[in-house]
Amino acid sequence: MESAFLGFSTNSNKTLYPHFFHLSGIHPELPKYEVLSVLESESYSHQLLKKSNQCLILKCSKEGAYLAAERAAYCKRSVKILYKAEVAEEPVTKLAEKIIRNIDFENLMSKQKSFLVRVYRIGSTHCEFNSMDLEVAIGKEIWAKMKGTCKVDTKKPDITFVLLFTQDELLFGEEIYARRKGSFVSRRPDKRPYFKPGTLEPRFARMMANLSKANTKNFLLDPFCGPGGIIVEAALMNCNVVGLDIDKRMVKGSIRNLAHYTPDSQYHIFVSDARNLPFHNNISSIATDPPYGRSTSTYGKEIEDLLEQFFSEASNALVTGGVLAIGMLDEIPLEDIAKKYRFNLSIFEKIYIHKSLTRRVGVFVKK
């Protein structure tokens, strides 16, 4: 079954179109939650159409698709869907012709003079279709349909078309946003002006900020900010950030890192104890990754006591409906602790980091 797509309008006069989001395979669910959290945090209308391995299909505005893919650390690209179909065995040239024939390229490319076609697949799906052969075949079909008025440009095309093979279908459309490879490398912990071993990688830190539904209007708090991994990523997304740490060295290190990566951002960093937060009902988002140090003799009791006190304080600091995203050791009973302090569970996922660390990511909403 094949289909071409038209958009529909909402009450806000924003036209929503089907888009697919090509996601990282780091975890089966967290990248999907991250994209949805970004759209919800900035109040973009959207409708879930389908979830599959490393792919999320939504109806949303072009602006929403751009923002979600730009902000979400584990999203590779967002693409406005122009055509989709089940995958059938057929020659590459026939598949290319079938994809292109129902798309109005004259209108779509009225102002674009150059284009590029890229083919991707989830895992090793549908390897019977050679990617390069298919890119060439689709490019020829577009050129013919445009009667030779456009050309292929592999470096700076005016428009990029993407074909994605998923497990059960093919999706073709106009690329709205694509993440540049290596865009997080310069912010790896070992590249920062202030380095502390064992801190979050920047992509994971950004995901935590997004899962807390941080936005550009309210404050995001990290009460265990350490060297500032989460708050640096939030500040780069133009969020207002507050970072606290009981260790003066961490506070100074956070300020150094923020000044290096986001010199023009607004931030408030100071020494404070997460068990005694200086806020009351005025924080919308908390994203944090508390220290995992634990006493062998009490098998983690110290960190549990710390979390009990922190959740009590977080409940007082957050507004009703405020969101807390937290990473923690797998064996710590996060859900049980959160329930005691007026929190509803929203997301609770286990993610393998390495052989000695499996982390739980919990997202909780204050009642």
Give a written overview of the molecule.
- This protein is of the alpha/beta class and 367 residues long.
- It has 2 domains: 2-178, VC0802-like (2-Layer Sandwich); 185-366, Rossmann fold (3-Layer(aba) Sandwich).
- 29% of the residues lie in helices and 32% in strands.
- The protein is built from 10 helices and 17 strands.
- The strands form 2 sheets. Strands 1, 2, 3, 4, 5, 6, 7, 8, 9 and 10 form a 10-stranded mixed β-sheet that branches. A 7-stranded mixed β-sheet has the order 13-12-11-14-15-17-16.
- A hairpin with a 5-residue loop joins strand 2 and strand 3.
- Helix 1 packs across helix 2 and helix 7 (229-236) packs parallel to helix 8.
- Residues 4-13 and 294-299 have low confidence and may be disordered.
Q: How many domains make up the coordinates?
A: 2
Q: Helix/strand/pairing class, anyone?
A: alpha/beta
CATH topology tier name of the largest domain:
Rossmann fold
Q: Helical proportion?
A: 25-40%
CATH architecture of the largest domain: 3-Layer(aba) Sandwich
Give the overall pLDDT as a whole number: 92
CA radius of gyration: 23 Å
Number of helices: 10
First and last CA, distance: 45 Å
Outline: elongated
Compressed to H and E, one letter per element, the order equals EEEHEEHEHHEHEEEHEHEHEEHEHEE
What portion of the residues fall into strands of 2 or more residues? 25-35%
CATH superfamily of the largest domain: Vaccinia Virus protein VP39
Assigned CATH class of the largest domain: Alpha Beta
Low-pLDDT stretches are: 4-13, 294-299
Largest sheet, if any?
Answer: 10 strands, mixed
